[in-house]
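# step 3/5: fold
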Amino acid sequence: RGRPVQQSLHALLAPHECGMLAPVFASLMALYERALGRPLVAGISAALSCDEQLLTELIDGSRSRQDCLPCAEAVASTVDCAICSTRIMMTLTMPHAGVPFRP
């Protein structure tokens, strides 16, 4: 919609005491779009799009980037690092919000 991504993410996450994850997710999604070679398709209402579902599965570890997101090696390596960093930040942040995270 053309709105600043980090500000929008922060507005969604702050009420759950996870506002500091906004730049983490913004960066991950930018890299994910680079790997996809196109903008992420967002779901309608509460339903996740295929892109959002895949990103969720990459973060939770139920899918591997190598198996489902073929892209240039440099981009792939960066996406893999971003996924690991996101998991770390979620682990550090979400228990404080009362939401345990286990990838």
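# step 4/5: annotate
The radius of gyration is 14 Å.
# step 5/5: archive (pending)
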